[in-house]
Every structure is written in C-alpha cells, then in structure tokens.
Amino acid sequence: MRLSMRRVCLIVASLGLGASVSAQGATSPPPVEDSSTPRSDAVDEIIVPGRAPENLRLEIERLELAVYDRFNALNSNDEFDIHCLERAPTGSNITQRTCAPNFVIQAESSAARKMLVDGRSSDANNYNRAEHNLRMEQKSRELTEEMQRVARQDEQLLRDLARLAELKQLQPAEAEPPAAR
C-alpha cells in the first residue's frame, strides 16, 4: 500500500510537471536558472520507510524455507525435519501455509487413522488426548534443543534465524477470528 501510494504521488507530480512544460511549448526558451535562488516549482520526494505487507510475507516465506532446508540437512534426527505445506482448509478456497516437523505430521496422521479404525469398531473413541499432548510437548522440547544445538554450530543458520525473528516482528498482527456465538 505504501509503495503504491508513493507511485501514485510520483505519477501525479510528473503529470503536473509534464503539463506545465508542454504548455510552455516551443514559444519561449526555458529561463536560465540561477543556483542562488530557490526554485518554486521543485517537487520534494517523500520516502516512506517500510515494506509492503505482501513483500514482507514473501520474504518471510523464502527465509523460512531456507532456514528449514538448512536445519533439515544439519539436524541429527529425521523426526525433526520441518516441512511446509500450502493447502486450503475444508470449506475454503484460500490456501494457508503451515509448517510442521515430521513427528507432528506423523502423529496427526496416526491419530486420524486410529479414529477412523476405532470409529468403525466397538472401541469407538479410544484416543488418549492427554497422552498425545504429553508426547507432543516432549518432542517439541527435543526439537527446540536440537535447533539450538545446530544453530550454535552453524553461523549461517543462526544469522538466518535471527533475521527471520526480526521479519516476523515487523509482520502485522493477524486479524482475530470473530467470537463464537
């Protein structure tokens, strides 16, 4: 938005200058300017710092991909490899990007399979959510420790992680979902 406003301002300013120049035409030569006198028709350029949100989002996605690819190559456990997927949630055509380590993807797949099998048998809903949550918390702690260990050993990964954290802080907060009625 900021970038497009800047372009609009520059276009409007250049159109205004172009119109005054074409109005003078070839009838009179341009006046000789004295460098000691300020120009009254000078256009100031306004620079608005920052990034367009869509550029920031793309930069974050690219850096995330680079960080995860590097981490996946360097970590000691394939369960901790992180992959990102773009998919539209059920009932929507708008894709969302989600990133998760292999252990989460495998746990979700296993839980869904178990619920399908158990739903068809007499042992319906034999899913222990507390056990699942405990396992995910433990694996998440292990993943954090592994990422810290790898980042301490690889300067490039450490720099990219720091840059990713900076960019995510610049990202505007997501709109909160409406409250359930």
- Share of helix among residues? 55-70%
Q: How would the global form be characterised?
A: flat
Q: Termini, distance in Å?
A: 34 Å
Q: What's the helix-strand series?
A: HHEEHHH
Cα gyration radius (Å): 28 Å
Rounded average pLDDT: 76
Give the helix/strand class: mainly alpha
Question: What is the strand arrangement across the widest sheet?
Answer: 1-2
Poorly predicted runs of 5 or more residues: 1-26
- Number of beta-strand segments: 2
Q: Approximately what portion of the residues adopt beta-strand conformation?
A: 5-15%
- How many helical stretches? 5
> Which sheet architecture does the biggest sheet show?
2 strands, antiparallel
Could you explain the architecture of this structure?
This protein has helices at 2-24, 53-74, 102-120, 129-153, 155-170, and strands spanning 82-87, 96-101. The chain has 181 residues and is mainly α. It has a domain at 53-170. The protein has a two-stranded antiparallel ribbon with strand order 1-2. A hairpin with an 8-residue loop joins strand 1 and strand 2. Helix 2 runs antiparallel to helix 5 (155-170) and helix 4 (129-153) packs across helix 5. The longest helix has 25 residues, at 129-153. The protein is flat. The two termini are 34 Å apart. Mean pLDDT is 76; it is low at 1-26.
